[in-house]
Task: inverse folding
């Protein structure tokens, strides 16, 4: 049976030299949530997400995704997460379609299936007419969309996105929102970092608030807000 929690970390800790970036984070995200990870610049959101998705080794603590330990069982975790990192390390000399084919083949998905999934995702992301253009010529919105498509190819159960809406035009942002909503309504989990509180308020049913490397509040959106706007609530928290 699928665990009730999609994500749980215990005492995650990371320092860079003398700078403690993440100072003992216990992050919890219930399965099926549309979860927002919020907090001011430098709060430790990116560092936390990087440790959960296996991109960065913690100094201490543990992380589980879907009940599997990220460092003890990386193969299981990799199979059921999708990641859209902040800096989108894409192969820019490929076309959008080639990028999806390449990522799908890397994942070990059979060629016919990758081709079918790629066309499906290109359509959903409204990228069919740009599919043969090089990713290097894509706008930020198009890059985020092709990045999300690549992250969704293998039908992951938990998606992690670091600032997915940063610098994205409104039409692409709407497409991203629609895709993510459809994805969570089918029972999968989304965790994304953002400092746009209006967006988090509109999309999320679960919020984790970080400040100075720690979780300072976490729970259902309505509880974290406590009758205020999320911005007002954050004034008291960070
Ligand atoms: P932002 O919203 O600006 O992306 P964030 O909440 O994602 O911020 P992090 O990027 O995780 O925060 O950074 C947390 C702290 O760790 C910051 O003080 C940052 O300067 C520091 N830090 C992060 N990565 C490194 C690194 N590779 N080397 C040194 N310090 C780092």
Result:
């Amino acid at each position: 049976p699928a665990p009730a929690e999609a994500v749980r970390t215990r005492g995650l800790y990371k320092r860079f030299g003398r700078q403690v970036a993440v100072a003992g984070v216990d992050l919890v995200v219930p399965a099926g949530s549309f979860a927002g990870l919020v907090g001011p610049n430098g709060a430790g959101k990116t560092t936390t997400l990087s440790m959960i998705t296996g991109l960065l080794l913690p100094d201490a603590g543990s992380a589980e995704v879907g009940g599997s330990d990220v460092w003890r069982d990386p193969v299981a975790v990799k199979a059921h997460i999708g990641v859209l990192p902040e800096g989108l390390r894409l192969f820019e000399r490929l076309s959008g379609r080639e990028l999806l084919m390449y990522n799908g083949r890397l994942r070990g998905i059979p060629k016919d299936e990758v081709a079918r999934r790629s066309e499906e995702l290109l359509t959903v992301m409204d990228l069919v007419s740009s599919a043969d253009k090089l990713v290097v010529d894509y706008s930020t919105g198009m890059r985020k969309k092709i990045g999300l498509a690549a992250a969704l190819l293998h039908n992951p159960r938990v998606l992690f996105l670091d600032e997915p809406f940063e610098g994205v035009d409104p039409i692409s942002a709407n497409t991203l929102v629609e895709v993510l909503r459809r994805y969570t309504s089918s029972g999968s989990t989304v965790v994304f970092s953002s400092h746009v509180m209006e967006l988090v308020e509109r999309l999320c049913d679960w919020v984790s608030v970080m400040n100075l490397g720690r979780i300072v509040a976490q729970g259902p959106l309505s509880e974290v807000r406590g009758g205020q706007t999320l911005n007002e609530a954050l004034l008291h928290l960070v």
